[in-house]
Amino acid sequence: MDEAIIHWNCNGIIHHLCEFKLLLQEKDPFCVCLQETHLRPGQPYSLRNYSIVRKDLNTGQRAHGGVAIIIKEHFPFNQIQVNTPLQVVAIQILIPIKITICSIYLAPDEQVHTANIWNVVRQLPTPFIIVGDFNAHNPLWGSTRLDNRGEAVENLLESRDITLLNNGSATHIAARSGAFSAIDLAISSSAISDMLRWTVLEDLYNSDHYPCEVKKNTAKTNQQISRYWILSRANWEQFENKVLMAVEGQFEVSIELITNIIQQAANESIPIGGGETMRRRVPWWNAEIATAIKEKKRALHVYKRVPVVENLIVYKRARARSRRLMLDSRRKSWTEYVSSLMTDSPPSEVWNKVRAIKGRSSHRQITHLRTNGADITTNSMEIANTMVQYFANISSTENYSADFKLIKLEREVALNFEGDNDLAYNAPFQFFELEEALKYAKKSAPGPDMINYQMIQHLPARVKQALLAIYNKLWQEGDYPTVGNQR
């Protein structure tokens, strides 16, 4: 399990929609387990790029309670039907191992015994992770007191093959008193508990519960980090001078030499970006909201250190201000976005914005593929080979009729490549052709050598001439070096 599971008592998913979208953008979990969704039975609710499994509380009163599991749409899953009167919803998901995830909400005034919870556990395929708001107090997971609910959960932990993942951190702050408590729990099959790490996030996201995160418990490795040139801050004059100085005195210029010279000049003249992946902010994000959220987090930290009424008031004011700014900015952003579509807008622009509104991406990696009509593979090589074989079979000549094969054979004539080398298309490339090609070259990501078209465009004329000579040699001899094949 490489990605995160978030569980959170959101205290109303519609009411805290802005905060929830911000949480998704910042943490990018593959699965979110929600409690107290406050959705009425049958009330429409959808989220771009996510599938939703939910159980709403139907009491005939105002919407309250309710649980849901929100899953990234490209993760295959099946809903597990759990026969229980409790507010529970469960799925089995492939990540790439099959694992059961269950979201549970036990209301404070609900009579719950060990047998009720065990009835849920025994219906879940193993291994499983159960997360949610248990409203259970027990010093075992950080509470200051023990109640009947906490004792029931403790009995379950002692008698069954499951493990508590909590580390004693507080997960809830009382709206009125400001008292902290630990009532949101995460338990798992003992077989996978050593693989998992549970943490509480730093921000409440304007609920009265902290979101909690369950991730794979592995040490960080030195993974290759994607680097990129910050071309907007490039010193092109210095770049050209560095290249000129490097080629001075060189009687023979090879593709390897030019590559090394460009790379060295770029390293000294163009800043390099990279590091941890920067996730896109929601479209209504701005500097004022960022500052307000920082102030809210700072106020919360102060209150946690010094829990007095004055600090609680400061925190609540900061929370209200950040929420108001997010709501106002979201409304304004949506109005501006929609109003930018005019009757004379090009169809391409209209459809791009329609796809953006629907949350559809044209660049999406295939992470799971069903093979043989049943099996699901997550291995990238198996996925590639399966797709290659599929398309090869579709385009195979074996699918042609006998009559078509005969006509195809008669009409296909082998090309004769013998001819006059003096023809125009065999002539060497001219310098103006190189300049013209560079002028209209589209910006694209560089290859492994990290050399892009902008760098070649800014090469001194003398170096471009040398590069042109190399291109002509490659064109005439057809002997491409290893370095050139990387681009």
From TrEMBL:
It comes from the Eukaryota. Pfam families: Exo_endo_phos_2. GO terms for molecular function: catalytic activity. Gene3D superfamilies: Endonuclease/exonuclease/phosphatase. Residues 99-211 form the Endonuclease/exonuclease/phosphatase domain. InterPro entries: Endo/exonu/phosph_ase_sf (IPR036691), Endo/exonuclease/phosphatase (IPR005135), RdDP_mobile_element (IPR052560). This is Endonuclease/exonuclease/phosphatase domain-containing protein. It comes from Photinus pyralis (Common eastern firefly). The lineage of its organism: Eukaryota, Metazoa, Ecdysozoa, Arthropoda, Hexapoda.
